[in-house]
Amino acid sequence: MAEPVLDLAGVSKSFGALKATQDVSLTLMPGEIHALIGPNGAGKSTLMALVSGKLAPDSGRIVVQGQDVSGLSVAQRARLGLGRSFQVSSLIPEYSARRNVMLALQARQGHSYRMLWPVRRDRSLTEPAEEILARVGLEGRASVPSETLSHGERRLLEIAVALALEPAAFLLDEPMAGMGAEGARTLTAFLDTLRAEAPILLVEHDMDAVFALADRVSVLANGRVIATGSVAEIRADPAVREAYLGEEEGA
Amino acid sequence: MDETRKEFWLNAVLLIGLFATPVIALMIDEPFYVTLSTRVAIFALAAVGLNIALGLGGMVSFGHALYFGLGGYVAGIMAHHAFSGVPMVFGLSGSDQMLVIWPVAMLLSGLIAAIVGALSLRTSGIFFIMITLAFAQMAYYFAIGWPTYGGEDGLSIFVRNQFPGLNTMQTWNMFLLAYGALVIALVLFAMLRNARFGAALMAIRQNPERVAAVGISPFGIKLAAFVISGMITGLSGAMMADLNRFVSPSMMSWHTSGQLIVICILGGVGRLFGPVAGAAVFVGFEVVFGGLTQHWQFWLGLVLLGVVLFARGGVIGIIAGRERHG
């Protein structure tokens, strides 16, 4: 039996009286896409923040490749192999697409205190950056500042930055958001190939994409995981239909 | 490409202009302008230091006078003890050698900057500004209340400290030292900015959350930048004390901190030659309008207002446009 790449055990987080995350346990196995769905306010964003390290859990453990990361910072968890993309594109606005990817490569390689050699002429950064941009289809936009890229291009650059980290697991927070039908289809096909590189914990509202991609789906409602299973199982689960699809029993 | 070239030529004009001014002044026998050019070079050096924290890292330090004054007092106190022959603390003797004083000024400034930075960099925005200000004001009142080194009256340096092979009492030689230090600091700034360290630091200014998410801790990078920044400003303070042959608590006052920020903004925050352009404008105003009216700072304030409202990039930005990070 393979070890899970990411393992959450009994993770809880409250804000005052609001129990945003209650006793969540889930795993991300090698080679799989594990989708996390749930209605608005179900606690998906909080759970993402707990996994990435932006929030610290009140209780429970988060383990990445056998190492407990519950008490570690965002940067430390990233170095241990969590490559995340943001729900709302969060890039370095004045940097070109290329420089955004180069920053991630530099973080992956270390040496961010190196003060002498110009990054512009550092081929261990520029060459892989071009390759990664080509993989997501942004090769023609490498020199454009990320703030002037289109919305869809920024979404792709988010993916490119995550790719550059060569993470043990991808945490993708609504990568399809605002992509349009055509873009969403292209990205779905791309993510389908990505799972061979590293498993993906995917938070997504686009159900077509989720049902096309996910090996397993976990459904969050009111901070709890109410069901985990294959796409077919989730579709058939009455509790899920009630909580998420908004269908009453017998409707 | 065009604007990058414009900036290159503008920088060259500033660099050559700052050197040519005292040369011409000596030829037409106007030594006052040699002193003035030296002032520009030293203020520019101080602002290059601040520009690392403020311009590259987005850390609005309102307390860089602390390092400026600290450098000044290192020069003053070491010269004082060298003159009197009485040892300083722990039996260490003073020194009148710039090559001893400068490293001491830089190390001490770096040490204090590390402490101030470690305590203040966990905050941001107005809190960071206030904490840096508070530290500088503490040092300011400490200097006022310490009678051993003149207290409020300050401390005179009777004979300028020595530099091997140069007669520092000739202002032209002081200019050469300040200009040399400025050029070295500019080269260092350019290298830092273009290297991985600068890439991380400038990214933190724009989006620290993203930088953390790729695995670089913003705190360490910012602290390192803050320390380097303090060290450069500390060196400039030691030079300013020697130029004036006088150091007083006012070097540490918040006016001085504000002045350094104004120089950066006037010239262009984060731009390589912003501090040089800013220092030239600042000292120019001081002389031209200071000769006409006591209220020259009012006019400087108007210019600053204009820059902040209509030309965020300062002098460099007006001429060479926005900076590009290809």
> How large is the share of residues in beta strands of chain A?
15-25%
Task: Report the radius of gyration of chain A as a whole number of Å.
Answer: 19 Å
Q: What is the string of SSEs of chain B from the N terminus onward? A: HHHHHEHHHHEHHHH
CATH architecture of chain B: Orthogonal Bundle
Question: Your description of this structure?
Answer:
The complex is a heterodimer of chains A (251) and B (326). Chain A folds into two domains: 166 residues, P-loop containing nucleotide triphosphate hydrolases (Rossmann fold, 3-Layer(aba) Sandwich); 76 residues, no CATH class. Chain A is 35% helix and 24% strand. Chain A contains nine helices and ten strands. In chain A, the strands form two sheets. A six-stranded mixed sheet of chain A has the order 6-7-8-3-9-10, with helices on both faces. In chain A, strands 2-1-4-5 form a four-stranded antiparallel sheet, covered by helices on one side. In chain A, a hairpin with a 2-residue loop joins β9 and β10. The termini of chain A are far apart. The mean pLDDT of chain A is 91. Chain B has a single domain, classed as ABC transporter involved in vitamin B12 uptake, BtuC, CATH 1.10.3470. The mean pLDDT of chain B is 93.
Features:
heterodimer, A: 251 residues, Rossmann fold, 2 domains, 4-stranded antiparallel β-sheet, globular, B: 326 residues, mainly alpha, ABC transporter involved in vitamin B12 uptake, BtuC, 2 strands
